[in-house]
Recover the amino acids of this structure.
């Protein structure tokens, strides 16, 4: 059976929504972290439920996201939906006008709920560096496995 969850297509749609909501240049790490927090918003206090449901292995998903996120970003750049920006720290990405127009066509409940949660994630973590945001996810993962959040 072909996987339908976390395909490059699905991840690409979520990347577009993240970049459209934030309207700023984001690194792959920040996009990944914001996407993860939005999907599992209940665990981070930004939503009343987790968009992808509750499961015992959700925090292990974050570690495996990098490859598919990279492939999705590359595809979006090649299609002209996002723009890459090179700086001394590496690349950041922003949404293009074509990407914004595409986002306007996304009008289902999932996309609307996801966008709402992404806005809450952005507001809650806007002052966090990319590194601090990743550490926050790691702290929640440790807490989920019976540890303590720092």
């Amino acid at each position: 059976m072909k996987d339908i969850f976390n395909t490059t297509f699905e991840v690409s749609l979520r990347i577009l929504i993240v970049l459209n909501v934030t309207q700023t240049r984001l690194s792959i790490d920040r996009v990944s972290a914001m996407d993860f927090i939005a999907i599992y918003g209940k665990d981070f206090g930004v939503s009343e439920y987790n968009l992808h449901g509750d499961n015992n292995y959700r925090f292990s998903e974050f570690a495996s996201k990098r490859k598919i996120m990279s492939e999705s970003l590359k595809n979006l750049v090649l299609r002209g939906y996002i723009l890459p920006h090179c700086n001394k720290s590496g690349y950041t990405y922003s949404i293009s006008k074509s990407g914004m127009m595409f986002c306007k066509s996304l009008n289902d409940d999932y996309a609307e709920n996801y966008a709402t949660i992404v806005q809450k994630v952005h507001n809650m973590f806007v002052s966090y560096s990319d590194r601090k945001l990743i550490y926050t996810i790691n702290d929640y993962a440790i807490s989920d496995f019976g540890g303590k959040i720092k």
About this structure: The longest helix spans residues 58-78.
